[in-house]
Amino acid sequence: MHHRNPEVIALAHLVERTPGSVAFKLANFASFDPTLRARGIKGAANAGRLDQKVWNEFYSNWTELAFESELRLANKKQTAVEELIEESELLQFPVGRTKEQLVKVRINQAFFRKAVISAYNGTCCITGLKQNELLVAGHIRPWGVDEANRINPSNGIAINYLHDRAFENGLITITPDFHIRVSPILLKQQDDTVKKYFHKYDGSLMHLPSRFLPDPQFLKYHNDERFRA
């Protein structure tokens, strides 16, 4: 969040502010971030009521305000909002919708991926792999199960494709205290490949994000409803 960050500098240019003032505003918002608080990072001490209002509004309505923020960013860049995303960043989306609805879905999916991967600093939460092309932003509560939290970064984890597939199918999970559990279905297998890619992670602490810590209630849902114990 410092003033030398290239993204902070670029945003400052767009909104006609100094990088220092943008970084200062980010520090104000950081004072409300529960993940940063849990890590002992307090953010700015002089955040105001308006900062709190903006934070609360955004945090309680990801679907609408993530899209609105991207629209405003596109407007500042004098481009179409579709130009802010790349095909490689998009997840599958439902068919049979209007063009405007599809654009919104695509923008929100791209926002979710960027927010989650960034929160984990481009690191797989299971293995520690740092290769962006091999990572996905996986949902803890699936897209089709919890519409209100589809875009909530606290409902996401950065995870590699192999373990994402295992997570989706309940072969691995993450406990509410952020430890990895491997299903007995895999633990019973003595194949060297299964041991290498799964057994050794059982009981390990996941790689935690720098912000948007996974919501323990979402993790509890995955443990109770999806994990094949």
Poorly predicted regions are: 88-94
CA distance, first residue to last residue? 41 Å
SSE order, one letter for each helix or strand: HHHHHHEEHEEHHH
| Principal-axes shape call | globular
Q: What percent strand?
A: 5-15%
Work out the radius of gyration: 19 Å
**How many β strands by DSSP?**
4
* Total helical elements: 10
Q: Please describe the biggest sheet, giving its number of strands, its sense, and whether it closes into a barrel.
A: 2 strands, antiparallel
Mean model confidence by pLDDT: 89
Fraction of residues in H or I helices: 40-55%
Q: Which class do the helix and strand fractions yield?
A: mainly alpha
Spatial strand order of the main sheet: 1-2
Can you describe this structure?
45% of the residues lie in helices and 7% in strands. It has 229 residues and is mostly helical. It has a domain at 88-226. α5 (62-76) packs across α6 (99-119). The chain starts with 5 loop residues before the first helix and ends with a helix. 29% of the residues are buried. Residues 88-94 have low confidence and may be disordered.
